[in-house]
Design a protein that fits this description.
- Helix content is about 50%, strand content about 0%.
- It is an all-alpha fold and about 80 residues long.
- The longest helix is centred in the C-terminal third of the chain and has 16 residues.
- The chain is elongated, with a radius of gyration of 21 Å.
- The two termini are about 40 Å apart.
Length: about 80
Amino acid sequence: MSDIINYTNAPEDIEEALNSAVIIADDFLPTPDRLVRRTEKEKITIAIDKQSLDLYKKYAKKHNAKYQPLIDRVLSVYAEKFLK
């Protein structure tokens, strides 16, 4: 984006905010196929520390999500980074 727009008719506080805004690169988010993970799942039974599980459930509820996929994602990231 090389076109610079000068907002001279905006109220002063809005003009300041617009002039100091930072442009975010187009590749800010991963592509949709990388954003939503569609992997084969296998059900297991596991004992998890109650305090940890409560934290996952609280975080998931706050973000209107399910806690199981959150735990799955944490385990997947760990496995990808440390268990290859």
